[in-house]
Structure formats: C-alpha cells, structure tokens
Fold this sequence. Notes:
The structure holds two protein chains of two kinds.
Chain A lengths: L6 E6 L1 E5 L6 H16 L5 H4 L2 E2 L16 H4 L7 E6 L5 E5 L2 E5 L6 H25 L5 E5 L12 E8 L4 H14 L1 H4 L3 E2 L10 E2 L7 E6 L6 E5 L11 E6 L8 H19 L12 H10 L7 E2 L5 E2 L1 H19 L7 H20 L9 H16 L6 H9 L21 H7 L9 H10 L4 E4 L3 E4 L7 E4 L8 H9 L4 H8 L2
Parallel strand pairs in A: 3-16, 11-12
Antiparallel strand pairs in A: 1-6, 1-8, 2-7, 4-5, 5-6, 8-13, 9-10, 14-15, 16-17, 17-18
Helix pairs in contact in A: 1-4, 4-7, 4-13, 5-7, 5-8, 5-9, 7-10, 9-10, 14-15
Chain B lengths: L1 H9 L3 H33 L4 H7 L7
Amino acid sequence: MAVPKVIGIETEFGIMVRGTDDWNPVSASSVIINAYVGAATGSLGERSRTVAWDFIDETPGADARESASLEFAMPPEVETHLVNAVLTNGARYYVDHAHPELSTPECRDALSVVIFDRAAEMIAVDSMDRARELLPAGQEIILYKDNSDRKGNAYGCHENYLLDRSLPFGQIIQAATLHFVTRQVFTGSGKVGSELPDTQIDYQLTQRAEHFEEEVGLETTLKRPIVNTRDEPHADSARYRRLHVIAGDANMSQVATFLKVGTSAVVFAMLEDHAFDRLPTFLDPVQAMHQVSHDLSLRGPLRLSDGTTATAIELQADILEQARAWADRYGFESVGGDRVGMMILDRWEQVLIGLERNPMDVAGQVDWVAKLRLLDGFRERHDIGWDDSRLRALDLQYHDLRPEKSLAARAGLETIVDEDDARRGRTEPPTDTRAYFRGRCLAKYPNNVVAANWDSMVFDTGSEPLRRVPMLEPLRGSVQHVGALIDSSDTVKELLEKLGA
Amino acid sequence: MAEREQIKRTSPRPSEEVNEAAPSVSEAGGKLKSDLDDLLDEIDEVLETNAEDFVKSYIQKGGQ
C-alpha cells in the first residue's frame, strides 16, 4: 500500500526594487522577510523574533542513487541561508541564495497545498506592504511569482512528496521523467521568447523547461536535472524518502497548482502500488522536455525508446487511464481521500480534453493559455509583433504579486479554495500533519522555542537542559494527536511532560 | 487506450457541432470577446510604463 503522499512546495520569488539603482537582491530579500516577521511577532516575546531554523539534520548533498559514481557524488554548492524564520502556520520563510523563499507547511493533500500556496502569496503581499512602510518614500520592493528573468537565470518552485523508501530509485526516475515531461501541457506558466542560443520562438508553454540539461542528478543551480536526487527525507529515513522535484513552474492558477501536485502524488502512489502496466520512456528526455515546451500545437510526436512516437497529451491520457484503474483497486486514501482524489482525476481529464479540443477552452485553468490569451489580444489591439517589449512586460507582470498590478489576478482564472481559508492559512497550520505541532507550539509558547526544523523542535523550559522533540513521522503531531494536549497545557514544560518527551 | 479514444471522441467535428451549438457558442464567444476587451482596457491602464527599461532591469541571479 502506498504511503500517504504528504506534500509541500517551496517558492523562490523574483525580486526587484523600484525607486533606486543602489540595491542588491540579498539585502532586499532580508528586508522583505524581516518586515513580515517583525510585524507578525511584534506583540509576542523577544525570543519569537529569533526562533532559528535548526540545520543540524540538513544534508542537501546526500544522493538518492545508492550506486552513485564519484563524479555524481560531488555535493552541489552549499546553500547559504541568511534570514530564516519559522511561521506559526508551520511554514519556513527565508533568504535562499538571492531570493526570498517560502516553503509551505507539510500538507496532507493537493487541495491543502493550494490553500497554503495562496496563503504564501498573501504573505508575500503583506511583506511588500510592510517593507514599503520601512523604505524611504518612493522606494518599493516588488515580488514576482515566476521562474525566470528571461535572460538565462532561473529560480525554482520545488515540490516535495513523501515516498516509500523501499521503492527502487530507478522506477521513480522512469515514472517521474514520463510525467514531468508531459505534464508541462497543463503546468506551464508560459514565457515570451526563448533563453536558448540560436532558438527563435515567439512563445512557449513553460518558464523552466529550457533550464534543464540533464536527465538525473544532484544539482539544482546549474546543469539542472529533470529528476533531482537530493536524498534528505526530513523524516524516518528507514521508511521514507522525500522526492525533491525541481522540474515545475510556479503557477498563478490554483487549478494548475492543484493538478501539478495532485497528478504527481497520484503517479507516485500508483508506482508504490505497482499499478503501472505501461511506463514508456523517451529516446532523449531532455530534448523531449524542450520540445513539449516549444510546441504550442501540442501535436508534436515525441520519440519513445521503443521506436514509436506519441504526443504529450496522449501520454498523459494513458497515465490517467491507468490512474482510473489504480483508483478502482486501491482507492484514494494515499492521496488524501475520495473527495480530493476524485477531484484530481476529474480535473485532470477535463483539462486534457480541453487542451486536445481547443486550448482556449482552459484559459481559466492553465496559466500558459491564460497568458497567451492576453498576449494575443494585446498584440491584435496594438497591432504589434512578438518582438515588442510591451509583450515582455506583460509576460512579467502576469506574475506581479501586487494586487493592484497583477495581470494574473485580472485574467479570469478559476479559484478552487476559499480566500478566508487561505487568509487563516497565513497564521494557522494545517491540522492533519506534524506542521500542526510546529505551528501551535510556536504560537502558544514563543518564548520557549529555541529552534525548529522539519523533523524536530528544540524547547527551553527555563529550568532544565534544552529538550529536543523529534518529529520523524510527518502525519504525527496532528490536531488529532496533540490538539487536546496543547490546549490543556499552559506551559511548555507541562506539554513535554504529557508527551513523555 | 479508452482515455485516448474518449479524448478523440470529444474532439469537435466541425459540421455537426457548429450547427447544434451555434447560438450558445456565438453568445459565449461574444461574452468572451467583451470580457477580453475590458481586460485589455485594464491592462493598458496598469501595464508598467517604459516597458523596455522595465524588462531590461529584471535580472534574477543566484536561483535554484
């Protein structure tokens, strides 16, 4: 039986300062996060402002391939983290390289991911508003939810899925490659032009595809691989693996985010349940990834290893057909239950049918289509060609997170989560994962939390040595497990006694 | 390959579908067009001025 597909996403925001030429992205990112964290904890104790992320168990250089060659085993550039905050919703908000990055709390299903992704957008908006108050008049920090500056520099929207450790990594590579290359037809955010040398193209499906050069590997900042092998489970490593996915675009469309993580969770659950009868492989996966992104017709034949060809939509439809058979046999428990599971499969089918019939049918669901509709309308109205810089400005501004400037917010995208739920999600954690324990403790005992991590928390009870509470099971620490204990404990000491920690 | 067939089945056959669904399609099309016109009016208002400089200055190094 597949393990529960606990999911989280990490978004690196694009950042720009208006009103001055004298700025750098690292300090601007720090201002953004400090502005938010300072205001959010203003009424709490001093300690809460300095709750540290605890790096003791972080090993981003660990490689998932058991037989990794020395050449592959070289650790990538060690991440440099500056400002680093843990939020009461269980999320982590920090400066990563030269971007502000927000990692959602661990979510039990794809719909919960959409709530906390929308909450992350709201946190970004709050951060910009608060930073504006701190900056000299006329200056403003702007955040974009995109993945490329269109000049060859990319930044990520990574996804994380909890997988069964016993699943052979070779099988993960096969299924992940098939899905990541072909899901681009509905996960792409759209991009004007190309960032590859000698490539003339007006518009393409994705922001990220052209930045992928390898099939499998440990890197995330250069020679990016379609399947990333970082092996850092943030959970019981004997039972679990965390698949760290770097191959997707950040989405403005809630349906696209839902399908991106929902269909992927289904694919990995199917793999664990041995439910794939057909798992075609590409002759050249990297070429196929670029080809899908460049093919607005969606009709281009992709070359498979067995000598045949298929389109991305055909391959997606075949995965979906096998997913229906899997669901009949195993149910949707592993992906969060019947309601979310059926919603994933039904939405998946609707979007594929729409893309096959006429992509404009899904302009309310798929970002690259929504953006193309705006670009085509704008081109026609102003009678301009694809080289006009206003189209590139429009492309960028689609991702502007300021409500008064965002074009995505005006594009008629369908919403599937309640705005009030998302607003609550800025400060309240999900109730069905260990993020609940992290968030509640931080909110209730801010002066006693010394450090927090995905899989542990360190408390200072005031009188004893520091106490580390391990959280190696991502589904333990939910409201069901610890809600009443936290409610009934006035002090952290009391809580730890009740937990038997 | 039932799903593939299903997708093919649901692909519009121009002659039949246009006749059957003509009024509502053109109505919906008209609504979409006016929505898009309103939207383009709004874009003209909020789009960053000085597009060329704006696009040029958007540089994002050091990402994953």
